[in-house]
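Hi, here's the filled form for the chain we discussed.

Project: internal
Contact: R.S.
Residues: 312
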Amino acid sequence: MRRRRRPSVLALLPALALLAACQSGGGEASGPTRVTVAHVPSTLFAPLYLAQAKGYFKEQGLDVDLRKVQAGQDAVPLAGTGKVDAVVAGFSAGLFNAMDQGLKVKVAASMGASTGARPSPTALEVAQRVLDSGEVKDAADLKGRKVAVAGGAGAAGGYQLAATLRGAGLTLKDVTVVNVAIPDMRSALADGGVDAALAPAPFTTAMEEAGVARPLAVPPRGTSATGVVFGTAFADKPAAEKFLTALRKGAADLQGAGATSEVTLGVLAEATGQKVEVLRKTPSYQWDPRLAPDAQQLAAQKRAYRDADLLR
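And the returned structure, exactly as it came back:
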C-alpha cells in the first residue's frame, strides 16, 4: 500500500501567510479599512473633501464613510463612544467640559483658519438699519446689543465672536449672544431680532448684496475653532495616522492658488451643496499644510469660554 505524501512546509508557506493576513485584519486580502467620519458640510473642512474626492484616502487603504450631521459639537460624543471614528467639527465649550469629565476623545488636527483680511470668509455683520441710524459706528458700539451666533456663546462661533470683539475691548459678557441658525441670520438682522451676526460666507455675501447688513469687523488672522476629533480607541490604530496622512495631502492642495482652483471649487460645491459661481465669490480660509492642532488657539478658546463662565 502506497504512503500518502505530506505537503512540504515550503509548499504551505503562501497559504499560511494569507491566513495570517486575514486573521490580523492587515494586508490586501482583508480589503480597505473602513473609517466613519461625522461632519457638517462646510468649506472650512476642504482638506477632508479633497482627500475623499481625489482618492487620497483610498491610497492609504481606507474606505472613508462621510456622515452628515446637523451640529458637529453634538456629534463629538459619538466618537467618544465609538459610534463614529472621527468628527470634523467646531470645538465648543461642551467639548472641553466633556473631555474634563472623561470623554474618550483626542483633538487630532486643525482645520480652516481666518485670514484676517477683508473680505473675510467669516465676518461680524451689523444690521444696516443701526448703521444708518448712527447707533453703531464701530464694534465697540455693540456693547449691550444682541449678536447672533449659531449654537450660542459656547459654540465655535462664540469663540470667533470673542476673538473679533477683543479688538474693540469687549468680551462675550458685553453683548447678548443669541443662538440663531446661520440660514436665519439674514431675516433676524432685517426684522430687528438681532443687531449683528457672526456669519460665514456665502451667507455674508447674501446679506450684503441684499442691503441687510455690512461687515464691521473680522476675526484676527489665524483664528481657528475647528478641527478633527478622534475617539481614543481609533486614535491608537494605524488607520488614524493613515487618515491624517491623506488629510495633509488634501491640505497641501489648498496652498496658494490651490484654494480657489476650479478643481477645488468643484469638489467643495459637491460636498457643501453650494453653487460653484457662489464659491468663486466666497473668500477662502487658510490651512496649515500639516494640519497640526493649534495649541495657542485651543488655549485662547478655553480662556474665552472661561471668561464667559461657560467652563466648569
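Let me know if anything looks off before we file it.
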